[in-house]
Design brief:
- The chain is α/β, with parallel strands linked by helices.
- It folds into two domains: 143 residues, Rossmann fold, CATH 3.40.50; 186 residues, 3-Layer(aba) Sandwich (Rossmann fold), CATH 3.40.50.
- The strands form three sheets. The chain has a seven-stranded mixed beta sheet, sandwiched between helices. It has a four-stranded parallel beta sheet with strand order 7-6-8-9, with helices on both faces.
- Helix 5 packs parallel to helix 6.
- The longest helix is centred in the N-terminal third of the chain and has 22 residues.
- It binds beta-D-glucopyranose.
- The site of beta-D-glucopyranose has 11 residues, from loops.
């Protein structure tokens, strides 16, 4: 029953997308040169495979349509992001799909867009503390964190007193809080009862009896264990933590790593420490390199966020807006100033047991992208 509903919904979405896409413009998908652009897409950086994946999925979705869309990257700079938005406004966009580099700093850019009458869709990351956001398309980020935490519990080597290393994303990204919150809610009872002992955060240790953390409490922990989403920073932190760790914080360990890019580097550090007997490490994004790590037994799991769905939702919404309709949403997120109507997508836990089914059979990747599958 549920499946059938999903199938019909998907069919309708695809139909709406193709009908309106054909009606909507004259230039090609990745467009840009000459004429006006209807939809502008701004992504945070080309330096992380996650966002290159998104760019590719946008291009795939637009291929063969006459829909005029331009995609720009902010390269980790809020100033560049604002400049990108202004460039797109000058090209006459009607809808802006934007994944902010820094959720607070992006408010100025989207306020400029709103002033121009543009509909703003926050993509994957929420833009915070402004009412200039119309919609939010996102994965269930609390579920991402919860899945990471649960995986560590279900796959730990020992039964009690297992060292737990915590790492988080960038504090400028609202998602980093959602991921951490989701993980903490699952892990905290197991920290409080001694199943895990925190190895690398005195702030987390202080809060080990508090299940529902305030934003400030989370900030204090994230401040200590942030990777800033930077794999090099993750590697340096992991090295520092292992150098400082006493013998009872080695052996079989569990590692909460926030995403694949940071997980691979942290895993390399733990994997090369002779006092680490075994480690379980999380990730997210199903990056190709991490899928290979999972096949090779160097990363334990990833959370697969099917970017094809997010792109379809964002573009479907944009098309509806251009068509004068109100996009369908499934809930809302408070961004500190307003409740932003949101469309949320589920996530899938992937490890070596289901990698083939979830990522190859679903045609997200080709078997030939990997060795030893
Ligand atoms: C995204 C993750 C990504 C991270 C770093 C988060 O906002 O949701 O998928 O790994 O940013 O770019």
């Amino acid at each position: 029953m549920k499946k059938q509903f999903k199938g019909i919904a998907l069919l309708i979405a695809v139909m709406v997308f193709s009908i309106v896409a054909t009606a909507c413009g004259s230039s090609n998908g990745s467009g840009g040169a000459g004429g006006s652009v209807s939809v502008g897409v701004v992504l945070p950086t080309k330096d992380e495979p996650r966002w290159v994946q998104d760019e590719q999925r946008f291009k795939d979705a637009l291929a063969g349509t006459n829909y005029k869309t331009e995609i720009l990257f902010s390269q980790g700079s809020s100033a560049k992001e604002k400049e990108n938005v202004e460039t797109l406004l000058n090209k006459g966009i009607k809808v802006l799909i934007i994944c902010p580099q820094d959720g607070d700093a992006a408010a100025a850019a989207v306020e400029a867009a709103k002033k121009d009458g543009v509909t703003v869709i926050a993509y994957d990351r929420l833009i915070t503390n402004t009412d200039a956001v119309d919609y939010y398309v996102t994965f269930d980020s609390l579920a991402v964190g919860a899945a990471q935490g649960q995986y560590l519990i279900d796959h730990m080597e020992g039964t009690s007193g297992q060292p737990l290393y915590l790492y988080a994303g960038a504090a400028t990204d609202n998602n980093a809080f959602l991921f951490f919150q989701g993980a903490w809610e699952v892990l905290q009872p197991k920290i409080a009862d001694g199943t895990f002992k925190i190895a690398n955060s005195s702030e987390a240790e202080k809060l080990k009896d508090t299940k529902d953390l305030s934003r400030d409490q989370m900030s204090s922990i994230i401040g200590q264990v942030t990777t800033n989403w930077d794999p090099n920073e993750a590697k340096n932190k992991a090295q520092t933590h292992l150098t400082a760790a006493a013998a009872d914080m080695k052996g079989n360990v569990s590692i909460l790593a926030p995403n694949d890019g940071t997980a691979r580097n942290i895993a390399d550090v733990f994997g090369s420490d002779s006092e680490i007997t075994s480690y379980v490490i999380t990730g997210q994004d199903a990056e190709q390199a991490s899928i290979q790590y999972i096949i090779d037994g160097k990363q334990s799991m990833t959370v697969f966020k099917d970017v094809r769905t997010l792109v379809k939702d964002a573009m479907g919404m944009a098309v509806e807006v251009l068509d004068g309709k109100s996009p369908e949403t499934t809930g809302s997120y408070n961004n500190g100033t307003a409740d932003i109507k949101a469309k949320q997508t589920d996530v899938i836990v992937v490890d070596k047991d289901n990698v083939k089914k979830e990522l190859i059979d679903s045609e997200y990747y080709k078997a030939s992208d990997f060795t030893g599958l």
